[in-house]
Amino acid sequence: MSECPCCSGKEFDLCCGPLLSGEKKAATAEALMRSRYTAHVKEEYPYVIASTHSSTRPPDNEYDDYQDVG
Ligand SMILES: [Zn+2]
């Protein structure tokens, strides 16, 4: 029994644990941010990188726009 590092007050296994292990996807943006914070705390860097990459990467269609202009 351990409290989740994201300060939700819930147990890790009932909070960010399933997200970090890939069992569940974050249902909300807040849950995603909490899980990423928890991943930092627990040094689960592959999870941080994976979740950051998909949410901050520019949309592919930006490149299409540049090609249309050229
Ligand atoms: Zn949590």
How many separate domains?
1
Pick out the low-confidence regions: none
Mean pLDDT: 82
Strand content: under 5%
Through-space gap between termini: 59 Å
Which cofactor or ligand species appear? zinc ion
Question: What sequence of helices (H) and strands (E) makes up the elements?
Answer: HHHH
Largest sheet: none
Radius of gyration: 16 Å
Shape: globular
How many strands in all?
Answer: 0
**Assembly classification:** single chain
Tally the helices: 4
Which structural class do you get from the secondary structure elements? Answer: mainly alpha
Helical fraction equals 40-55%
Describe the structure.
This protein is mostly helical and 70 residues long. The chain has 4 helices and no strands. The chain has one domain. Helix content is 54%, strand content 0%. Helix 2 packs antiparallel against helix 3. The protein is globular. It starts with 16 loop residues before the first helix and ends with a helix. The chain binds zinc ion. The site of zinc ion has 7 residues, from helix 2.
Q: How is this structure best summarized?
A:
It is built from four helices and no strands. It has helices spanning 17-20, 29-41, 45-56, 61-69. Zinc ion is lined by residues 4, 6, 8, 15-16, 34, 38.
Helix and strand topology:
Elements: H1 17-20, H2 29-41, H3 45-56, H4 61-69
Helix pairs in contact: 2-3
Zinc ion (ZN) binds at residues 4, 6, 8, 15-16, 34, 38.
Supply database-style keywords:
single chain, 70 residues, mainly alpha, 4 helices, 54% helix
